[in-house]
Amino acid sequence: MNVRRTPEVLIVGAGLVGLSTAIALRQTGIDVRVVERHPGTSIQPKARRFNFRTMEVFRSQGIAQEVAEAAKGLADHQGMRAGRTLVDAEPLPAPPHIDFRELLELSPEQSCLVAQDALEPVLLRLARERGATVDFDTEVTGLAPGADEVVVRLREQELTVPYVIGADGARSAVRELLGITRSGAGELSRAVTVDFDADLGDVTRGREFNLCQVETPGAPGAFASVDGHHRWLFYTGEILPTDAPAERWATVLRTAIGKDDIDIHVRSVQAWRPAVLVADRFSVGRVFLAGDAAHVMPPFAALGANTGIQDGANLAWKLAMVLRGEAGPALLDTYHEERHPAGTYAAEQSAARTGGLREMAEPKDGLAHPFALVTGYRYASGALVDDGAGPQPMDRLSLAGRSGTRVPHVWLADGRSTLDICGRGFGLLTGPSGGPWLAAAGAAGLPAAQVANYCVDSGALLVRPDGIVAWSAPDASAAERLTDVLDGLLHRS
Ligand SMILES: Cc1cc2nc3c(=O)[nH]c(=O)nc-3n(C[C@H](O)[C@H](O)[C@H](O)COP(=O)(O)OP(=O)(O)OC[C@H]3O[C@@H](n4cnc5c(N)ncnc54)[C@H](O)[C@@H]3O)c2cc1C
């Protein structure tokens, strides 16, 4: 048997989560190998909406511009429509309780639309350019976690690695091999996606859409733009057997479009089941679950991949610091402590949005405000100093620099965002009266900045590499505790 000891982290699965986590690890200099059982990246468009928090993660990895470039084709396809057919559909008004102009103030990044099968090759290229090894046609078939390493079986080969991340999707072999159970409402409904090509220019020019709900009897569903020109998805129910002849599906599509003279090429018809299932553990010893392996959720809030990419961002810096000896191994326990409740919340909120586009525009009791859903969640864990502020309201976005929340964004005088303060490690933000903090940060080797008109004056925000406030210190008298606090957060003995 061929046994070798590389790399430092093995990622199982080269989907959006595996690839983006590989980029995050390379950003910190960690040696990473990704193995993928398929011969290439996904051929299904599936995820298309990448929210502004995910774009902030990409920004921290230096790849937001490349992702935005890949999303250019759908830049004008942001609106929602609904009607009897695609031809009749009218724009849906923006939900009255949401002011999208606020987004410009909330984040240095904007969300974007890019189909998963277009984004994955971009992430693959960037991961390889940054030094990750990505091997296709390589399937993990066995796993033996030990106290000091994990032995991974890749068909005929065994590999011994310090850490493994299972980013291997909803049917995760890593999760199964570890015997991790899942909880949640389970399958909610039955859905069918038809992936097709058609020149719909006459119907959609000047009437571009992200999603368009059609309410015609016999062909109810929603169209989604894939490339903005010729390729589309139609989400529907089990109105025909998935293996029905392509021409029968084309007839359904023409009914839903509202024109019977359109040439249609059906690429595929796939049945799938929206579900809520969350792994009961996101880690066992040296093995971690991320993305759909950890949590599956219905796509109606466009959170599945976004939540998974944020799992990777949360885990990467922790693994890097432990591997470099800058943090104790107990820091890795905080991955489950933080991401399990966040993933469960995202899945439950996604299930609560399982209505049509018209209903989704209405405010509803128990639904988080969309901006809060994207970036308002507050962690509680051993990688934070609890400021005793209690749970975060989710009916609105209120970012005030509390410990466990995403650091509030404002532009710094040098053109950077407060989110850019960290780089690869921790960073510190203080206000105009925070001189002692600058000295303490300098002594601790942390980048720091003073910000006017911010949520700190003589206090400070200690910011983690994933943009989360680790410590919200009320005043300058606490500056002398900075090193002790860092030691505690990082579980350094
Ligand atoms: C219709 C639809 C629309 C969606 N829209 C959105 C959206 O707009 N926004 C959003 O955020 N999410 C959306 N999602 C969800 C999103 O597609 C998933 O959450 C995302 O693909 C999960 O990524 P992943 O990398 O965790 O898993 P996957 O994409 O499933 O990737 C896992 C990879 O692991 C590989 N693998 C599995 N087992 C092994 C093994 N043993 N060895 C090696 N490799 C293995 C698989 O081949 C696969 O390539 C949507 C989903 C659907 C169905």
UniProtKB/TrEMBL annotation:
Gene3D superfamilies: 3.40.30.120, D-Amino Acid Oxidase, subunit A, domain 2 (3.30.9.10), FAD/NAD(P)-binding domain (3.50.50.60). It comes from Micromonospora zhanjiangensis. It comes from the Bacteria. This is FAD-dependent oxidoreductase. Its cofactor is FAD. It holds the Pfam family FAD_binding_3. Residues 8-348 form the FAD-binding domain. SUPFAM superfamilies: FAD/NAD(P)-binding domain. Transmembrane segments: none annotated. Keywords: FAD, Flavoprotein.
